[in-house]
Design goal:
Blueprint: E1 9-11, E2 16-24, H1 29-33, H2 37-43, E3 49-55, E4 60-64, E5 67-71, E6 76-82, E7 88-92, E8 96-101, H3 107-125, E9 130-141, H4 153-156, E10 180-186, E11 190-203, E12 211-228, H5 233-251, H6 254-259, E13 262-264
Antiparallel strand pairs: 1-13, 2-8, 2-9, 3-6, 4-5, 6-7, 7-8, 9-12, 10-11, 11-12
Helix pairs in contact: 2-3
Length: 267
């Protein structure tokens, strides 16, 4: 089963590269028209660093008579609020707020760090509802870091996520590209987008030199859409997290599971 129930584990040698949680809402023009001073003051203790960036949106398709045309859109301001150690970041635009981290420890820790900024955002800007809630886990499995350089991806990743790399007559070293892309609805009004396969990922972490090696990417983006009220957020996030946990545990073999140093998580 794709989403069979699994026991939760904390991994000493976790392959997580980044975790992102994003909330999209109907456009609030005041966010782009004025700097979010009140919001910054509410979160400044945990996110003291501040910067902005102008982002150009892609052209919008509009209908003119019987024809369609591309209409340029105005750039939007993306406000960045960053923790002192540069490992946690809040992004705020007129359409979304997102929390991301390069230092994920546990779901409970992440949810706690999200709780106050999201509550302050709702109090200050009072969005009518959320159009989309997304939770994305980007894993990049390094055989070198785990001491598994003598193993094939077929030994570490379940066959449904590695394509022809699982075939006995295929030489892994000769395959230039092999990936899986999935976009499917899930039970409970949720959706899953997956990208899996070997690839190079640049890890630019604070205080460490950039690294680049071929790793196995397990990138899962789980979301819920509609007109989601603020009081429905905790339940939806728990649901998305369960899907993410089941996907990852179902995608790895026992060899990889043990190599990462698993410790059961008390529920």
């Amino acid at each position: 089963m794709l989403f069979a129930p699994y026991e939760r584990f904390h991994y000493v040698r976790s392959p997580l590269v980044e975790v992102i949680c994003q909330f999209r809402f109907p456009t609030i023009l005041s966010i782009g028209a004025n700097e979010p001073a009140a919001f910054q003051e509410a979160i400044r203790k945990d996110f003291p660093k501040y910067m902005t960036r102008q982002e150009q949106l892609p052209p919008k398709v509009v209908k003119k008579g019987n024809a369609t045309a591309l209409e340029p859109q105005k750039p939007i301001t993306n406000y960045h609020f960053v923790s002192e150690d540069n490992k946690w970041k809040l992004n705020l635009t007129q359409n979304f707020i997102a929390l991301s981290t390069l230092s994920y420890q546990s779901w409970e820790d992440f949810a706690t760090r999200l709780d106050q900024p999201l509550a302050h955002f709702i109090q200050i800007y009072q969005p009518n509802y959320f159009e989309r809630i997304g939770l994305r886990y980007v894993n990049a499995v390094s055989r070198k870091a785990l001491g598994l350089e003598d193993q094939l991806w077929d030994d570490l990743i379940q066959s449904q996520y590695i394509g022809i790399l699982g075939e006995p007559d295929v030489e892994e070293s000769e395959i230039a590209k092999c990936s899986l892309e999935v976009d499917t609805p899930l039970v409970g009004g949720c959706r899953m987008k997956l990208h899996t396969g070997p690839g190079a990922i640049k890890l630019n972490r604070p205080g460490q030199p950039p690294q680049q090696e071929i790793r196995f990417i397990l990138d899962g983006d789980f979301s819920a859409g509609g007109q989601l009220a603020a009081d429905s957020v905790p339940e939806k996030l728990e649901q998305l997290h369960r899907y993410a946990t089941c996907f990852f545990r179902g995608a790895i073999t026992s060899t990889l599971h043990e190599a990462m140093g698993p410790t059961p998580v008390a529920e």
